[in-house]
Amino acid sequence: MNLVHSPSRLLVAEFLWTHLEAAHFVEIPFLLVYGLLLAYITAASFIVARIEGWQIEDGFYYIMMSVLTVGFGDVVPRSESLALLHTLIVLLGLVLATTSIDVAGAYYIDKLHFFGRQLDDDPLSWLKAVQQKRIEAMKREAMRKLFETVTALHHIRFTTMQKLIETAVAKKEDSMDGLNMPNVVIDPPSNISAFNATADSVCLRWTAPQREPEGKRFWYTLTYKTRNPHWIFGRNQATVVDFITGETYEVKGLKTFTLYQFSLVVTTRYGSSKPATCQEYTEPCTVPQSVAVEALSSETVTMSWKAPKKNNGPERYVIMYSQEPAPQFKYWNRFKCGASTRFTIPDLGADTRYIACVAAEHNFGLAAMSKSIRFRTKLWWHEEAEHTSLLAPLVIAQKRLSIISSISNAKSIDK
Predict the structure, then answer these.
(1) pLDDT value of position 341
(2) Do residues 345 and 332 lie in contact, with contact meaning Cβ atoms separated by under 8 Å?
(3) What pLDDT sits at residue 1?
């Protein structure tokens, strides 16, 4: 795809990426579309019949032949002074007819396309559904028989077993009376956030609880699952990772371009804290992964990235960047990087904020963009030296004040 025609499509892709969660898709009823078309044809037929002195049937026939681009030519207007009005009426009707046919065609083509994909993905889906129903029926039968067995055993008195149970319960109550279980309030972790998301992994980081329970004898328990539950066949099962001791963790083996919800709790021998949650999307498998800034100066920045997880042919990369606040996407600067996964952007302004992203270009055109990355260039070396020389007296004064305050505190303690 030529880069001259790609900014509009990239602008739509960026808008959908940033507003994907809040997007709502509206389906226009066909009856409304065709009702508007029929109403316009009726009104136009009445107008043309009044102008030309025709019958309503002749006006309707003329409009239909013109709008549907049939054009037999047996009924034509005679008033040359109103030729422009006739042209506008036919042109507007042609636009409405084309739009109606396009909406209907696109809808049914999408229906057939997705129906075919469902057949290609799992041709034996009907057989699996029948097998699942048989399994559920067998489970219900097994539960019914188990209930009957438990009900029958309930009427049989096992005096010896009851005495053993009563003795065990009494011993347990005596042992529990001797324990002094404290009422411990466990603080949850704070500032949990996700970063460095790729197509199959997400990194998490958080801050330890303010009051560490039992010193440092605790650990973290992480639970994650997809946000939108799949109720069919119970596929939205949560995954639990226990005994995490650090304050960062990388979750691997995730699905591409999926919204996940992460829940983290502090666990001790007395129980668990309230959960701290966050959400994050994994990136699509066709975009560059792990975009990062390797080196930064006052005029240049060196960026690196990894190839997409799924390749659609030989790939070339395009870097797009702009100074913040960023204008519309079509005004961003662009550099073609070829097949290299590392590139240095030149001619930047000193002490300026920028935003940048990377897109992969393959045989089918320009793919979706990676997540954007923001950075700020450094000062010129002489400006940085002047800034340091101006701050040096302030740093020395702060050190002197801290020494004087510590000496005065020590004297007050001695007194």
Answers:
(1) 87
(2) no
(3) 41
Token pair 């303010």 in the structure block, residue? 210
> Closest Cα partner for 313 from 366, 370, 364?
364
187 confidence band (pLDDT: 50, 70, 90): confident
Cα-atom radius of gyration of the chain, to the nearest Å? 36
Place of tokens 């701290």: 276
Asked whether 177 and 234 are in contact (CB, 8 A), the reply is: no
- pLDDT, tens digit, for every residue of 69-124? 777 777 878 777 777 888 888 888 888 888 888 877 777 777 776 655 555 555 56
Q: What is the dihedral of CA 40, 45, 50, 55, to 10 degrees?
A: -150
The sign one gets for the Cα dihedral 154, 155, 161, 163 is: positive
Amino acid at 110: D
Per-residue tokens: 287:
């975009």
Cβ atoms 67, 91 nearer than 8 A: no
Q: 227 is written with which tokens? A: 């946000």
369, 15 in Cβ contact below 8 A? no
pTM for the structure as a whole: 0.43
Contact between 205 and 193 (Cβ < 8 Å) = yes
C-alpha span between 7 and 326 (Å, rounded): 15
- 246 — phi, psi (to 5°)? -85, -175
Average pLDDT over residues 236-244: 85
Q: Which helix (H) or strand (E) holds 64?
A: helix 56-67
DSSP for 102-154, please give it.
HHHHHHHHHHHHHHHHHHHH-TTHHHHHHHHHHHHHHHHHHHHHHHHHHHHHH
Which of the 8 DSSP states describes residue 98?
Answer: H
Beta bridge mates, 326: none
Q: Rounded CA gap, 165 and 232, in Å? A: 42
* 71 vs 131: CA distance, rounded Å: 58
- Contact, 322 vs 333, CB < 8 A? yes
Name the token pair of 187. 């603080």
Q: What angle do CA 344, 350, 356 make, to 5 degrees?
A: 45
Per DSSP, what are the bridge partners of residue 361? 316, 366
What contacts 346, CB < 8 A, 6 or more positions away?
A: 299, 300
